[in-house]
Amino acid sequence: MTAGFQATARTSSEARAVARTQTLLKGRDGIGTVRRTTLPGGLRVVTETLPTVRSATFGIWVQVGSRDETPALNGATHYLEHLLFKGTSRRSALDISSAIDAVGGEMNAFTAKEYTCYYARVLDTDLPLAIDVVCDMLTGSLIEAADVDAERGVVLEEIAMTEDDPGDCVHDLFAHTMFGDTPLGRPVLGTVDTVNDLDRDRIARFYKKHYDPRHLIVAAAGNVDHATVVRQVRKAFEKAGALSRTDAVPVAPRDGSRAVRTAGKVELLDRRTEQAHVVLGMPGLSRTDERRWALGVLNTALGGGMSSRLFQEVREKRGLAYSVYSYTSGFADCGLFGVYAGCRPSQVHDVLKICRDELDRVCAEGLGDEEIHRAIGQLSGSTVLGLEDTGALMNRIGKSELCWGAQMSVDEMLGRIAAVTPDDVRAVARDVLGHRPSLSVIGPLKDKQAARLDEAVS
Q1: What pLDDT score does 18 carry?
Q2: In this structure, are 213 and 277 located in the same domain?
Q3: CATH number for 402
Q4: Pairing relationship of beta strands 44-49 and 106-111 according to DSSP bridges
Q5: What radius of gyration, in Å, describes the C-alpha atoms of the chain?
Q6: Among candidates 16, 398, 402, 37, which has minimal Cα distance to 229?
Q7: Residue 223 reports pLDDT greater than 70
Q8: Same domain for 95 and 174?
């Protein structure tokens, strides 16, 4: 049984009649120009042209993630990501992988809380192949029962691998600490129980519901021609019968549902590890909050590098941890701000006290002007350096279209960062760091140590 799109009698000429193309960002001498074409069925194609390179990255973003799962379906989005590599009516799993390997390309996918992405990076001359393979996977997956059963073991091994890495697992625990048993609080990979309960029919229904062209963003960056990419994508999707609904419009960016977050909660997972892994954090900002630029500067100054406060206080001055950093996560309607550290179990309370003291100090006093200016420079540099390959460019334009429905130039991003003032940083520090924190810990803490964890969130 084919789980993919079903062909219809509508002609390709009818489909072409409703395609709409816009230039979203004008580059210099054609370099960095971003265009969007909306095809029938609500499918959007965005490209960024960089003719000075010899590579291209092609990706398809899907507006579905673990946040869209019911408790019984937890892990279905990630499971489905695996299954789309298992074969279509035109290609076997080996055909899919060998096609890209044969041209020296790279192909992969990832699943997050609010979206999924499939992509391939190839030489520019091999872009038509990448488009054909990835589009075939997205529209023509068979999702055979035998493949579901075979891949179950692979997904369970991935869950086991994550659980064997407490430095990774503690972030899943922190999401649960903050959001509880809700879609944002449950792990993207699912659990052993939920993955074992998923069957072919449930996953196929999930695929049919969410992999609709209205929910898809096609993104390509590098030495690409927009019109050629659109033509090739349109051909692939029309072949699958996916562009027949000429009245369909793209879904709007997700607006969320105001997730409930907790404060002052402590969760401890007792593991026989060499280190204790801790995340101390509180509610952050949504990805659309205009204060996110100031929060980015605050995060960089607090724990974003070797000169940051937390790195200096915890590692450099006291030698209490090898890894210590802060981070932000922004969702459609909410966010998280967290501080991570890995240390010897006997020193966990010293580390937590230093981190809490620094958060409280910055909340009350703000950051110095020199710290802020240094953080602005660091954030600006890392933003540009992080966009030096076609994969990063594809991620930027695809995620921007999916999450914001708009594109922002690098110059505009740098301008937003540079415009952050000390008052902006002090205000967002009060707003975010003023919340009572919650705490997640993985490690072999003794009873007396565990009993004292509440001190960090009181």
Answers
A1: 64
A2: no
A3: 3.30.830.10
A4: unpaired
A5: 23
A6: 37
A7: yes
A8: yes
